[in-house]
Write a structure and sequence with these properties.
449 residues; mainly alpha; 3 domains; 3-stranded antiparallel β-sheet; two-stranded antiparallel sheet
Length: 449
């Protein structure tokens, strides 16, 4: 009997050793040897050109470039519920960028979220989508990035709460949420549909913004495209729960993604404006494929929800809502939004605006406060911002009036808090159709690497 405690202790010790070994195996990843930075001339120009298109589809420039920084040099703060993560430098600088990364190291980062040194990357870098990217496309992206000008720039230290500031913790997150399977085409669907699915679920990572997240920051798989958040903007639902007064179809999605506006839906704003700016530089076939896939995700629109019916209903509805908001609308908004001037240079009829019918008021508050700044050197939509000329109480009255006048939805809650949040965030940095940083200004040069 005296030997029993020793046996039990031995079993416990063995279990602890095995558990520690398993944990180590789960967390540890080997470093990949550094290389001498390859010469830009060593890459096939055709592959570099394809890589540039893929980088635009992935919106890489907007996450990896600080507002006042150099292209792809990182340092952009990405707020999360757990603190701030700063994007990394992905220029070929050998000290602070990826200049000493091999193609294999780059591919591992894309597919498993582990950097060259063997450290786990935070999932603000959406490798949970990039697992779907083919090796061929990874190679093209690598070629493009390694031919960019190197920039020596050290990203600020992440500002995360303990213990999430310890990278080994991310291995546990991956064990729970990182799906290792790659994209598999659906043989029952068209080639265009499958191309769109590959791009949306992979490099374009649309669900990263348009899907709600759970308490640990992972996308809720069963609520794919049910709406999410990005930079204090509401990323609207894209599935059958979409709140657009006139439902999207393949043609309207294509026009919106290609040109940044559609007469039934208005102009792109906030982070989405940056996305469509990049999409303006990629092959037309890829944009159309995305539209075809997403239209199928949204489902067939109901015939009674069409532009004519929505506008007729709005015109026949009795005037209602906050009278102070109505007076502000008449003085500051109606001249453009009721002018009948076509988009993108006229204001959208607000009965067609998803911002008015959305579950919360944040997008409409953002656009009222920040407006739509003109883009230097090109014709573009423009709207003045009213942050300096309206008080929070006036903005609240206007929001409440617009909700009551142009939608059948119930009043928004916590409008005052929404406005205060909008004033605090970077709505003043709102972009509309600014040219993407990695695209040539002259469209005739887009065939060049």
């Amino acid at each position: 009997m005296a030997r029993s405690p020793r046996i039990i202790a031995g079993i416990v010790a063995v279990a602890l050793v095995v558990g520690a070994a398993a944990a180590f195996a789960m967390v540890w990843r080997p470093a990949i040897a550094a290389i001498e930075p390859p010469s830009p001339a060593s890459f096939d120009p055709a592959v570099v050109k394809r890589g540039r298109e893929l980088a635009a589809l992935g919106n890489c420039n907007n996450c990896h470039t600080r507002r006042d920084g150099q292209d792809f040099a990182g340092g952009l703060p990405v707020p999360t519920p757990f603190g701030v993560v700063f994007s990394s430098n992905i220029t070929p600088d050998p000290q602070t960028g990826i200049g000493r990364w091999s193609e294999a190291a780059f591919g591992r980062a894309m597919s498993t979220g582990v950097n060259r040194e063997g450290q786990h990357l935070y999932p603000t870098f959406p490798y949970d989508h990039f697992t779907n990217v083919t090796d061929e496309d990874d190679r093209a992206l690598y070629a493009f990035l390694m031919t960019r000008p190197p920039v020596h720039a050290v990203a600020p230290r992440n500002e995360l709460v303990f213990p999430l500031d310890q990278r080994p913790i991310i291995a546990g997150w991956k064990l729970l949420f990182l799906r290792r399977e790659t994209f598999q085409p659906d043989p029952a669907k068209s080639a265009e549909w499958n191309r769109g699915a590959y791009l949306v679920d992979g490099l374009a990572h649309c669900g990263a913004c348009h899907t709600p997240r759970n308490a640990l920051g992972a996308e809720r798989v069963r609520a794919q495209f049910a709406g999410g958040e990005a930079d204090n903007w509401r990323a609207y639902a894209l599935n059958d729960r979409a709140h657009a007064p006139v439902p999207w179809n393949a043609e309207s999605l294509y026009a919106y993604l290609r040109h940044g506006w559609h007469p039934d839906h208005g102009t792109a704003r906030g982070p989405m404006a940056e996305v469509v700016s990049n999409l303006s530089t990629v092959p037309d076939s890829d944009v159309r494929a995305i539209a075809i896939y997403m239209a199928d995700v949204s489902g067939a629109p109901k015939p009674e929800r069409n532009r004519v019916a929505v506008l007729a209903q709005a015109e026949s509805a009795p005037a209602q809502g906050d009278p102070t908001g109505g007076a502000i609308y008449a003085a500051a908004c109606a001249a453009c939004h009721e002018s009948g001037r076509p988009l993108p240079y006229g204001g959208v009829n607000l009965a067609l605006s998803t911002a008015v019918t959305s579950p919360d008021a944040r997008n409409l508050a953002n656009i009222i406060l920040a407006g739509v700044p003109a883009v230097a050197g090109e014709r573009s939509p423009i709207m003045p911002g009213f942050a300096a000329s309206m008080t929070d109480a006036q903005v609240a009255s206007l929001l409440n009036y617009l909700r009551a006048r142009f939608s059948k939805e119930p009043p928004w809650a916590d409008v005052e808090k929404t406005i205060a949040d909008a004033r605090r965030t970077q709505t003043a940095l709102l972009q509309t159709s600014a040219g993407p940083r990695d695209a040539p200004a002259d469209p005739s040069q887009r065939d060049q690497p």
